[in-house]
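Sequence in, structure out.
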Amino acid sequence: MGSARGSFLEHLSLKTSGNLAHVGKRCAHHRRCWLARRTGEECSTAPAGSNAITVQADLTSPGKVEALFETDFGTPDTVYCMHGIMSLTAEANYARALQVNFDSVRALLDAARRAGERTGNTLKFIFTSTLAVYGGPTPSVISPLETVVTPESAYGMAKLADELFINDYTRRGFVDGRILRLATVVVNRGALSAATASFISAIIREPLRGRHTTCPIGDSLDSPELDTELWVTSPVTTIANLIIAKHIPANAFQPHTRVVCLPCFTTTIREELAALERVAGKEALDLVRFEDDPISRRIVTSWPARMDNSYALGLGFKVDEGGMLPIVQRLKEKMLAGEV
């Protein structure tokens, strides 16, 4: 039922699934942690040498969610909530999308609140939101603390509703919320999915593996549509920022909101392909086919492509340096080393 990036309890952490599963693995080497995937997905094994356990659970079942907070590792001190049904799949199955993208998050919030009340320690609740909360006309540069959010998708609407609940639970002292709006993470190492943004990673990842892939924006390398701007970040920087989020003092955030748009940089589809050719040669670039899709083009061109990073950088979050080239080079090196 679409992509289900998960959450995980870190101490602990709760639920890692899908494209950000390696976040849980990274944390598991430092603290005790359990990783939970939703029912219907293959359950990952715990990273070798880590203090971690893996659990498969129906995150739309309050009882199953409650059980995640009482295991052999005890009660968590931090929840990373990162699951969701993405974009086009959420539109196609609205009821299920609300269950997964909103109801299950509320169940996690309530379970975290009760766990904190039992232990006398307010749990940190780190939530990955999305730039899909923005819609309609937006300024050329988004100001995260000022630009109005008007989502135009089921996915963005549910994420915004989650943000409101987390802010209010934080205001009332139920949890210590940290809301991180993620941009497109490139290069995502997972398989091509139904998410509209999936091609942004695929046009790098698949040619590096010697496979053909399709770019749904433009009909050739000469297409002006390839100059479409994208707001992106790398997996390495995303993981670092998710960990940083836990350690920021609560009083460093704005008093009225815990929302932070993680720092990213602007690139274009053309710049992505240029980096691919520079790292892997023209033979890799020739593996990219073009089949312009008006729906995908409309969606992609509606996304914010520039944002003011100053607030997030002031909190201590990191941003990628050097554009796409080091990101593509790093992925190629990991592939050659057999690490991905």
